[in-house]
Amino acid sequence: xxAIALTAISSCKKTDESPEVNIVFLHHSTGKVIWRGGxxxxxxxxxxxxxxxxxDRLVGKAALPAMIEKHNKKQNxxxxxxxxxxxxxxxxxxxxxxxxxxxxxxxxAGNKPFMEEPTLELLTKDYDLIIFKHCYPVxxxxxxxxxxxxxxxxxxxxxxxxQYLALREKLLLFPETEFILFTGxxxxxxxxxxxxxxxxxxxxxxxxxxWDLPGDNIHLWDLYTLETExxxxxxxxxxxxxxxxxxNPVFAADAVHLLFNxxxxxxxxxxxxxxxxxxxxx
Length: 282
What we know:
Elements: H1 2-17, E1 20-27, H2 29-36, H3 42-48, H4 52-59, H5 63-75, E2 78-85, H6 98-107, H7 120-126, E3 129-132, H8 157-171, E4 178-182, H9 194-211, E5 218-221, H10 223-228, E6 239-241, E7 244-247, H11 249-269
Parallel strand pairs: 1-2, 1-3, 3-4, 4-5
Antiparallel strand pairs: 6-7
């Protein structure tokens, strides 16, 4: 009995001493669909705005936190993941495009929230891994103006590039924090012009091939490639409908596994053992 007790104490001590890794996923609707792994209906989406716990009881626990919990038990680690709508609809507004991350995290940086939204100075105090993304209207990119302006919320490639370069410089100031940025969500063909889709393809290609640097604390998860498979549009087989650019449940169920792979690999191997889409390399 003494041996059993000592074993139990040793096991508990091992669990208690497992390093805690706190993760936050900043998202809106597309992110919510992937967070749940497609396991969500209209009622649960409405209820989740009141109580995530009640929504979980209606349709079951969201897929991504459930996978994290399973990994914790299997590997005896202590990863905690939380979700936040960022930015909220009010007072800032339901916008999470390159300008908005620049506006909140760089232009209005500091140890106080900006319009009730947490700055990086605040988020990095609470989280070891920060995951963030854009809603699919990020792909509605217009033609460039005469000159780029980092302070402009107009969606052009030149403005996006300035904002992304400023964002990269800012994220590198927090070397103890890891970041995962989704490449932008695509849109179905019926909801975007060909010119806009071509510009989106060009920009996200630049993000992958030029903006993303090896060996730092910034990692990509290439949602854009998963949704388009190299084309210009979100494949209709993966979308909620031919006119709705949200992921359907089948796509979300596959995507959440790849996102999970990427998250765990970033924590445990600096992202070196998965591709940008989350497929395991070894």
